[in-house]
Amino acid sequence: MTPTSGTPHRHHYLLDILHWLIIVLSVLLIVFISVDTFKGINFLENKLYMQFQFWVCIIFMADYFIELPLATDRWRYLRTHFIFFFLSIPFLNLIDLFHINLTSEQLFFVRFIPLARGVLAMTIVVGAFSRNKLTSFLSSYIVILASFIYLGSLIFFYCEQGANAMVTDFGTALWWACMNATTLGCDIYPVTIPGKILGCILSVGGIVMFPLFTVYITSLIRHYTHTHRFYLQ
Q: Model confidence over 13-35: pLDDT tens digits?
């Protein structure tokens, strides 16, 4: 194989490695945030976390600039992937560096910005596993839904613990998030403003996302019926 013909393959392997690295780092970020939330650790004072999330953001930004010159249409890539670059900026480190005063709730939400970048990467990589469009769609859908519910429950637990007598542990917050995301409702009511806003977001997100699963099942049944029409007659 000549160097010219091998170059695209090397680019493909490099991008695969970067995407998997981003997924691993995103999962580690979720673990870091979860542990700090459960233990009530002030993450701005957690130097290990601040350094870790800084380098995670740097790797995220590096992935953006590595993919840019490899894109077939670079201007289109800039337009469609700018949000990836924006979500990769280490805002927490900038806030700490310039001593910007934010409330603890605002800082907690800022922590989730790199995670949004990671979730986007996870949906792309997981969806690329399957050549079947329907299966790819379902895989991406499951990743988004699971991330949506878990991160929502984590935020709800942080905002409501201590202020809401009904939120006694994370399991309660996770149950609340699941019930709101499925639009079934729950007997646990948020008492803080962020918790109430989150409840609306989860409900609206559930209304939007769950019908997509119905569309997938319908398309799957149609595909199966079309493929096995001969046997059904």
A: 777 788 888 888 888 988 998 99
Global pTM value: 0.81
Is residue 151 located within the same domain as residue 111? no
How many structural domains comprise the chain? 2
Phi, psi at residue 95, to the nearest 5°?
-60, -45
- Amino acid occupying residue 12: H
**Is there a single domain that holds both residue 98 and residue 156?**
no
- Report the C-alpha gap between 213 and 232 in whole angstroms: 25
Residues 232 and 225: their CA atoms lie apart, in Å, by 8
**C-beta pairs of 205-214 under 8 Å, 24+ apart in sequence:** 205/148, 205/181, 206/180, 206/181, 206/182, 207/183, 209/141, 209/144, 209/145, 209/148, 209/181, 210/182, 210/183, 212/141, 213/138, 213/141
Q: Which amino acid is at 54?
A: F
Tell me the per-residue pLDDT of 88-146, one tens digit each, with 9 for 90 and over.
999 999 998 998 988 887 888 888 888 888 888 777 777 666 656 667 777 778 888 89
Domain range holding 230?
130-233
